[in-house]
Amino acid sequence: MTPNAPQRPILCYPHLGNSSCRRIVRSHSVSVLLHIILSSISVLTVTLNLLVIISISHFRKLHTPTNFLLLSLAVSDFSVGFVWVFMIFLINGCWFLGAGWCVFNSVLGSVATSASIGTVVLISVDRYVAVCDPMHYQTKVTKNRAKICIVLCWAGSTIFQCLKLNSNIENPGQFDSCAGECTIYIHPVGRIMNLFLSFIIPISIIVVLYVRVFMVAVSQAQAMRSHVTVVTLQSSLNVNRSELKAARALGVVVVVFLLCLTPFYLVLLTSGFGVKNISSYIFVIGLFYFNSLLNPVIYVFLYPWFRKCVKCVLSLQILKSGSSEANIL
User: Fold this and answer.
1) Which end of the chain is more exposed for a tag (fewer CB within 10 A), N or C?
2) Which PANTHER family did the record assign (predicted)?
């Protein structure tokens, strides 16, 4: 072969010739590094969120409406951990798992992220009621109501995402232009509905509710500094202090969530829902999924009970009789 002769493209399926997609060629070191990074993120996401799921499910003291919402968020984040596994298969631009698994990956990622968005909205509502109406919080926000809201959130997310991806579910692989591709088509109407239901409406609710919570927190702090305390309201003030502390902790979760979510939808909006820059698209969707790893990391720093639970789980103390009744708060 002469030095100036064009190199033949490396194909995903060489035996299929021109009907095969082209493989992305990277150096061995870069390919190994990407595999290590994505594998580590996947393992950590699954492991840390599994610890959250086990902790809240096992210890009865943690069976509160707020923690049930954290449990729902952990389940969605746990699912995203497996989406990272599928992303590893696309590092070289080739999909070898078949059209069915391609659709499954898209449905799993869509439902999990949609459910996490809905759960964060519920968390914001929970904190709003706890801080702005503490006297009626116990009656308005009960365990059963929290469970019902979580079930409705997951059911609604599953139904909407399946309808959005209906064409792909009914005919897997019909939108692939070559063998080894994993292409998902979403109708323009579905994209617009997804924008409103998964971004504009939820973000608006979250921002409005947390602005209100922040205003109450500021006024409460001012009242405490000026020592304006009525004896008859002392108990409600104590409730407010604990609820405000919880609101601040969950506020960190919400803010980090918004920082990871917003770039993804901004890229979609600025590109007119068309993927014009693959690199930027991969980065923002990776950032979106990376939030699933950050949530349990935040719990480690902000929740002492989670650190205690992790020690109990890793030391296998949860296997002891009566361990579920332990006071880890």
Assistant:
1) N
2) HISTAMINE RECEPTOR-RELATED G-PROTEIN COUPLED RECEPTOR, TRACE AMINE ASSOCIATED RECEPTOR 19P-RELATED
Cα–Cα distance between 152 and 155 in angstroms, integer? 5
CA–CA distances in Å: residue 72 to residues 143, 150, 160, 253, 328 = 13, 7, 18, 14, 20
Does residue 22 sit in helix, strand or coil? strand
CA–CA separation, 266 and 278 (whole Å): 14
Terminus-to-terminus CA distance in the chain, angstroms?
Answer: 72
Residue given tokens 């002492």 in the structure block: 304
Q: What angle do CA 155, 166, 260 make, to 5 degrees?
A: 60
Contact 119, 202 (CB under 8 A): no
Distances (CA, A) of 152 to 80, 147, 206, 236: 20, 9, 18, 31
Q: Is 29 exposed, middle or buried (0-12, 13-18, 19+ CB in 10 A)?
A: exposed
Q: Please give the distance of CA 196 from its chain centroid, rounded to a whole number.
A: 18
pTM: 0.84
Residue 96 reports pLDDT greater than 90? no
Which residues are CB-contacts of 308 (< 8 A; sequence separation ≥ 6)?
328
C-alpha–C-alpha distance, residues 65 and 233, integer Å: 24
Q: What is the DSSP letter of 24?
A: P
Q: Under CATH, what is the fold of the domain 30-325?
A: Rhopdopsin 7-helix transmembrane proteins (1.20.1070)
Cα separation, 194 vs 188, in Å, equals 10
Tokens 């926000």 correspond to 141
DSSP letter (8 states) at residue 96: -
- Mean per-residue pLDDT, 10-32: 83
Model pLDDT for residues 214-262, shown as the tens digit of each residue: 787 777 666 666 655 444 444 444 445 666 666 677 778 888 888 888 8
